[in-house]
Amino acid sequence: MSELEHKERRARLQHLLEEVGLDALIVFSPANIRYLSGFTGSNGLLLAHGAEAILITDPRYEMQAAEQTDCRVKVARGPLLKALQALLGRLQARRLGFESAHVRYAAYRALAASVPAQIRLRPQEGLVEELRAVKSAAEIGKIRASMETCQAAFSEAIRRARPGVTEFEIAAELDYQMRKRGAERPAFDTIVASGPRSALPHAAPSTRTLKAKELLLVDMGAQRDGYASDMTRVAWLGRISRKAARLHRAVLEAQLAALDHVRAGRSAAAVDRRARQVLRAHGLDGYFTHSTGHGLGLEIHETPRLGRGERRRLEAGMVITIEPGVYMERFGGIRIEDTVVVTRTGSENLTRIPKELIEL
Ligand code: ZN
Ligand code: ZN
Q1: Which residues have CB under 8 Å from 11's CB, separation 6+?
Q2: Alpha carbon of 291 to ligand 2 centroid (Å)
Q3: What is the tens place of the pLDDT at every residue in 176-188?
Q4: Domain boundary residue among 83, 110, 131?
Q5: Fewest Cβ atoms closer than 10 Å to its Cβ: which of 301, 326, 338, 340?
Q6: Last residue in a domain, options 131, 159, 194
Q7: Residue 320: nearest ligand to its CA?
Q8: Residue 202: nearest ligand to its CA?
């Protein structure tokens, strides 16, 4: 990301701060700090004030911060909050917001005890997250590259799936192939779930060995150049059973219908409803136990959530997943997930791996 892009983001944040009646914001979330400043270290605080911002970090990150950010950098020799306190004393701000969803209680207490008397501390949620919901062309380019890495790794690793191999082995191979192709890490713990374990929507891989005549569900994403991707595909070991084929067809129909419903201006809840309608027609909506999708970017779960009661409308430039699924105890689960860019007239699908039930 260019320095210009960070500066422009801070200017947009400043507008938001004015709208909610704040003079400055203390940013605690590492992803939000990265978004506004470019800094990727694990220990930092950002004081956003006007289009200016001061990054506070510790000496381990002194060189890195100087390289990565155009913000003023303050290197704290002790606790970051102590250094912040010194800055606040000189700050011309009375109404100071802080990211209440990203601060621990102990840190909050230390902060509250240290702000100068003329400053009012106000909890704030989701301000920077709101800015992050709509991606720039450069960000979409990075998510596209992340998705490419994810797909290439999947195509390579899935060939190793056969009876007798453990879920752990497949997960390790997927992660290895992603890193080998330039990912910093997986975007989340790779899900490899076989047989009845695939009925757990968020199964962690285990020592279970793959068996013939069973499902294999892989949900994976790369984190590349800071940006996540997310994809789910399902395979069957051996000749596909009629039940698996029937369930898969229904989920695919729901996924395609929801994808078809995506476009700027439509509510996130309406897209979710569309997937549910299709599954209801198949008598399967009771087995669909999570929301239809989520935004992604610097983090794997971002605004918007595509679920019931979500009033948020989709906007061009949002990057979201569409991932309906059905989960049946003892039999297993089927989910199909793509990452797509919302456009004015519809969406652009970044996931190109075929969605058919893969016969292994
Ligand atoms: Zn996923
Ligand atoms: Zn997802």
Answers
A1: 51
A2: 10
A3: 999 999 999 999 9
A4: 131
A5: 301
A6: 131
A7: 2
A8: 1
